[in-house]
Structure formats: structure tokens, C-alpha cells
Amino acid sequence: MNKFSSRNLIPTLMALAIGLSGCSTSKHSTGAISEKPFGTDSQGAAVTLYTLHNKSGAEVSICTYGGLVTSLKVPDRNGKNGDVVLGYDTLADYIKDSPYFGALIGRYGNRIAKGKFSLDGTPYTLATNNGPNALHGGLKGFDKVLWKARPFESEVG
Fold first, then answer.
1. Beta-carbon neighbour count of residue 143 at 10 Å?
2. Alpha helix locations (H) across the chain?
3. pTM value?
């Protein structure tokens, strides 16, 4: 069981993304968010792609499968937007070949050697998914969870 609320994680990421992408307004408006279908996961559940736009022309797209940041378009020094995120155009490609591009990584990042560690003297054994190692949260890390998202308003900056 994780400590994060699936109802709050994606909106929090969206607020963070809008703040990081140079939001110049004091309030976020739900009119700055568009949403569209982004395919279905391996169980057939619908996945949504949310795109946040700001007045400066920057935008970030985040889907509810794995909290994937599929695109971050920011202006270059000449004011021309460019996507600075590595990734795929479709959800099917993310599911088929998952190199963790743009994904939420949890419950831990990187590898735990041989899937074993000790905390306060208590040994723990994890599922391994990278040869003998446990990588990025194990067999079903946060990158493979279907998160719930909802638009909201919040003070920025």
C-alpha cells in the first residue's frame, strides 16, 4: 500500500508542471487544461491525456497511465516552441517498450541490488524485474498505475 493518494498525485504534478513551465498568472484556470483520450491500458481501461497551457506558450502533456509526461513544449531563445521530452506518440508504444520515459518512478528510483536491503536491522526482499535487481518500484511501480485526475484551481507562485 502506498502513502500517495491517486486522487491527488496527478493534479499535484500538473500544478508543478504549470509552475515549472513558466506560468505567468497568479491563478490556474481550468480553461488552461485540455483533455483527450490516449488509448487503453492492458486491462482495457481508458487513459486520458491532459495538456496544460500557459500564457507564455509553454505546454505540458501528462497522461493518467503512469503519470507519463509525454510532452513538454517550451520556447527556445527565439521564441519557437520545441518538445524537450523523450517519448512516444501513443500509449501502446509506452506499454510495449517501457524505458520509463517521463514516468512517475516509485516507490524508489534506480536499482536495489539483488532485490534485498535492510532497514533498521530488518531484512527485506523485493520482487526482481531487472535481472537479479529490483528496478523503479518492482513488478508494478507507479509507472504502471492508472491514476485518477481532475482539473482544479490553485494559487501558483
1. 20
2. 6-20, 91-96
3. 0.72
